[in-house]
Amino acid sequence: MSVDHPEVIPEVTVSSTEELKRKLNLPRKGYKIGEDDEESIEAWQKHDTMTLNFGPQHPATHGTLRMLLNLSGETVVKLDPRPGYLHTGFEKLAEYHTFNQFIAVTDRMNYLSPLANNVGFACAAEKLLGITIPPRAQYIRMIQAELSRIADHLVSIGTHALDLGAFTVFLYGFRQREFIYDLFEISTGSRLTTSYTRIGGVMRDFPEGHVEQLAGFCKQFMMVFDQIEGLLNHNKIFHDRTQGIGKIGAEEAINYGMTGPSIRACGVPYDLRKDEPYLAYDQVDFDIPVGTEGDVFERYLVRMEEMKQSVRIIEQCLAQMPKGPVKVDDHTVALPDKSKVYGSIEGLIHHFKLIMDHHGIDMPAGEIYHATEAPNGELGWYIVSDGNGVPYKVHIRAPSFIHFAMMPRLCQGGLIGDGVAVLGSLNVIAGECDR
Amino acid sequence: MEALIPFIPYLMIPIMVIVYLSTVPIMIQVERKVSAWLQYRMGPNRVGPLGLLQPIADALKMLSKEDVIPNHVNKWLYIAAPALMVFPAFFVAGVIPLGVLTIAGQDVMLQIGHTNIGILYVLAISSIAVYSIAFGAWASNNKYSLLGGMRSAAQMMSYELPMGLSILGMIMLTGSLRLEEIVNFQMNSVWGIVWQPLGFLIFFTTAYAETNRLPFDLTEAEAELVAGYHTEYSSLKFGMYYLGEYCNMLTASFMVTILFLGGWHVPFLGSLNVDPFVKQLIQVGAMAFKVAFLMFTYVWVRWTLPRFRYDQLMNLGWKKLIPLALANVVITAVVMAF
Asked: Residues A47, A77: contact at Cβ < 8 Å?
């Protein structure tokens, strides 16, 4: 543990509690926030501001995000985002897991849309491996990714509205998300920690009748738009709280590295599904909604429209989805069937090689960057492989991390209430931010 | 029977206390059930038949929770503040009339105190509540509480002005500050909402702000200030703030009913051929129904609307409601002059 680090209590060796108390000498440090932060002390002395510790445990941070606010009255003079309170070391974990094992870790990143993470990592690994998965698996992945996009947007809009005081929108969204999670449970066996994709395909095909269930979901789902739009779209209070708040121009947003619905709200039609089509996104027809103002209200509108487009994509996928295998036919990559494992020596060897620790898939040495359009923005995977069964290094470009870094730009000069609105509209997920 | 008449005000004291105290658990249950219906949920349905005993369980829970007084608070103010919330909430009940009964040929008002400054009394006493919130917030020695208390002080003070101005029109029409005479005036003509539609709207809006309910619940805005002024409160001290909030809602509903919805007046009841005593009981029931409906709208609005931002709330109060209320007074005066 570093003694020099201002926020870490130095390690001490003590023999009694009294000695510990004396050595630490920190009885009041717990709530004298900002005393380690020289800059904020300076600001406090100069401008007579109050430092407010916003998070990591706070109802609006939905997770463990921490921000230090310097307030003059209610106006935010300075905002200092402090990531790291949910640091889990996912990137480091990747160096100790085979590629397939790491898929289970990606579930925990953006926990509002675990399947989008599964799909993203699997696509990146396949790009490194240089294989193409069967068309049916591609369509299945697209359906699952779009479903998780809908689930993510529902929660994002819901919690955003919840932060502004509209509780009912949140539960309307959650009700529909429950239906989506039911569908995930049917197809993947799990509601949240899906771990559905495999390098070279998906875990298993859709069960019988699942296509009809998905079609039924799409039909009834349109109802949620009437409910949410009825509550928010023409609501004067909602307009006042969101229009012109957290505004950013297209050029500045690009410079900050903003992606996803947030940058589309600024008027930039940047969507990886169109710009660098992966899976079979070039074979379905959908529109990219763009805004003009780049404020909180337009981020909401873009998310609403994206859900409609996702439903469109799912419906097209269901119609176009071919029959066939859902894994590649190469057993150095995908697990062979159980009958082959028990019935043939080759099958048994393949199974053994894939399952045993530090064997895994024989990845070629090299490095690759592959990005998918996750619900929050560009979710990029930079994988370095040294030809071993496990990655040498994995870096994840998490949109939440980049968006969280924009909080000072978007919130300074506004009120506390604006900060909450902006945080909700960016949908910063702690698990993804601190990976 | 005639000997009973002087004792009616004394009999009304326990009745009003029961009305106020029983409203709170009922409202908690209604709040939870109605919000559940609005949101495709079941609501509480485990304790007792249909979950009806849930308020008792809630109250017991609140009573049996550990009463934490944090080290860094100003102890005496911290303890006194919640009491200061409940005291005015119950005190205003003193002038609220529930109806009228004819006993031995005399009309007896179902009211504790017959004072000629009824409305002023209600406005004066209910504004004490702001001290409770400000003291509680200050004594908590917590930044979130402090922000909540500041918001609350500013909000309640600025909304008292349009509130007072909005009922001025009604007072000018009736020429009395007595609540029972305002009702009598409406019984002889039409309801106040027809006389003073603008006054009704302003009063209705400000009543939400005065009771700190959504869309004006900035003082406890969960997403911004954790729990606002009662962040550091627990157990029954928190319960007293809760109690005060619901009692204030009830008072506000009573005031809207009495001032603008005709009090206990039931249209076309005079043409009905029933015993006068039964009629008067129906009128008391009508009063209860109107108040209950207004209480329901509180819940309805809470689970529908988002909340204002601090500066927007101030803009609405000072730049829109006060000029409108002033205009209302002027228009009423001009119309009355001709």
From this structure: yes
